[in-house]
Design a protein that fits this description.
The model has no long low-confidence stretch (mean pLDDT about 80). The chain starts with 5 loop residues before the first helix and ends in a 27-residue tail after the last helix. By secondary structure, the protein is mainly alpha-helical. It has 1 helix and no strands. It has one helix spanning about 5-55.
Length: about 80
Amino acid sequence: MFDVGFWELTLLATIALLVLGPERLPAVVTSIGRMMGRARSLARGLKMQIEREMNQINTTDIKPKNQPKQPRDGSDDESKPTE
């Protein structure tokens, strides 16, 4: 997702340590981890719900616009004997 390497993460951790201090940093990291877990759970649930809804659609009722109409009486032109 993001192209973040080792040095970028080290810089972010150092800045967070300086801004928050060693007392509050573990609590903040824990709460951020919980929020990320909740976001993943919500995204997973949404994906599963969308997949369930898509599976409930009956694809046999959907016909392409350019599909030729078939005769209603059950006969088609190919089954008629030719002279």
